[in-house]
Amino acid sequence: MTQLSRRTILKAGMAGFAASAFPGIAFAKAKKEDKKAAKSAAAYDAIVLGAGAAGLIAAITAVDSGAKRVAILEQMDRPNGNAIYALGNICGWGSKRQIRQGIKDTAEDFYKAMMVTSNWRADPALTRTYTNDIPSGLDWLEENIGIEFGKVKKAPYPREWRINPILGKGITGGSQMVQMLVAAAKKRGVVFLWQHRADKLITDDHERVIGVEAVAPDGRKKFFTKGGVTIATGGFSANPEMVDKYIGGWASRLAIRGSLSTTGANISLALPLNAKFVNMDQFHAGPIIAETHVNPNEVLNSGYGIIVDLRGKRFVDEVNTYVIKAKACAQNTIENKAWAIVDADCKVIGNMTHRFELLNTKYYKADSIEALAKDINIDPAVLKKDVDDYNNALKNGTLKQMNPPCSYRQPHPIAKAPFFAIPYEGGMTATFGGPLINTKAEVQTLEGHSIPGLYAAGNAAGGLFFRDYIGGAQLGGATVFGRIAGREMAARAKAAK
Ligand SMILES: Cc1cc2nc3c(=O)[nH]c(=O)nc-3n(C[C@H](O)[C@H](O)[C@H](O)COP(=O)(O)OP(=O)(O)OC[C@H]3O[C@@H](n4cnc5c(N)ncnc54)[C@H](O)[C@@H]3O)c2cc1C
């Protein structure tokens, strides 16, 4: 006889107690007709929630792996997630294109770079899976979907040739990617159910996911599946209540850099199933002008100038990355608004002001700091003192003793007219937290096992990112884990027949 562990006996005892103590509540049986529907010919082999990068890739891969009937439920009347806002850089190594371009790289170096970026807090197994699968993922996007990439570029950190930029051809690279994926999915017969907002997963009495409920224009509906459901609804950046709860009140003041449709269905759908959520306070931020969506990144990354709030007070060490500067703006200023003050020597100012003008976005330019201060409604004496303090500290070698310190490695004086004031706000790019997945994209429970039939991919899934990400690794993650989820659902559907 197998020896029962104390834990097993306790579990069995508690389950019996709970079932009898709360009949019809925690242990409610799945409805008979739901169970029948999940086995009927009408059930889909695979259901995907969300027509973003990860969802479209999961649906396409499910079909290519043998699934016959595959549906995507999308809450909007078109793809409307962060993917369409994305520049379209995908971070990877070892793809055929990279090898053709003579780029030498190794799995070990790539893995290490991803782990270092997360301060070694990313899930090692998921990071290893990303590392192993991204070469074939990039090849698949190019060869099977027809996505065209530009020449491989160097990543900002570490300076390796890992950025594969999708050619946007007049739109963002991310939008181009989504358009190509929608076309590929339609070609394969994937059923698109637009304006279907998924709001509840349906389980059988073994807590296996057998379907989903959605709100559609003609009422509430149920959809059933043999292979499983993939949550690919993005993160919760556009849900202020969740941002407040999981990250903090200050973060809910951040402007939204991307989609307003990423409202946390990854959390609300998986929470009732005892899913384990990880990295819930982690997210990516960047500067933005909320009104016109101009990204003033270039100036903030230029290594020139100082940053002040609307009263003229410095609040952040200017050497920091744009991610930290964006977060600090929401954390340390009352309005989440600030100015970068630079002079005519700033190398990128021409480019930047050109982009501002193209997008009808206001910036200010004046021949003296006092005149600039008047234009931006700051007391001229205050801004003049900021600039003088900075220039004097630079001369005396005491920049690091300022409050806050300024740690530029190669500081430049703010001396040459004209002077510029470039506005920015802190913005939320995407949240990193969500239900933890394993290397098969299966959602994990608090007890440490997989929820049968439930997968997550892209920004909906938790575990891959912490603190920051190497530029291009989010679309890369959507590609790698979208493909895995698609294959797994197809295999499950096949096994169920
Ligand atoms: C400005 C900006 C630039 C970026 N640039 C890059 C880049 O160059 N490289 C990179 O790697 N990453 C980039 N990112 C991040 C990248 O866009 C995301 O990581 C990626 O889009 C995630 O894809 P996804 O499929 O997980 O989710 P999304 O693309 O956000 O798609 C989610 C979809 O799910 C739908 N949905 C939500 N809830 C429901 C529901 N209940 N029922 C049905 N449907 C639902 C949404 O409407 C949406 O269509 C950028 C992000 C921003 C904002």
UniProtKB/TrEMBL annotation:
Domain of life of the source: Bacteria
A GO molecular-function descriptor: oxidoreductase activity
One GO term (biological process): steroid metabolic process
InterPro entries listed in its UniProt record: FAD-dep_OxRdtase_2_FAD-bd, FAD-oxidoreductase_2, FAD/NAD-bd_sf, Succ_DH/fumarate_Rdtase_cat_sf, TAT_signal
Transmembrane regions listed in the UniProt entry: 42-63
UniProt keyword annotations, A-Z: FAD, Flavoprotein, Membrane, Oxidoreductase, Transmembrane, Transmembrane helix
Cofactor(s) the protein needs: FAD
Domain called FAD-dependent oxidoreductase 2 FAD-binding: residue spans: 45-464
Protein name: FAD-dependent oxidoreductase 2 FAD-binding domain-containing protein
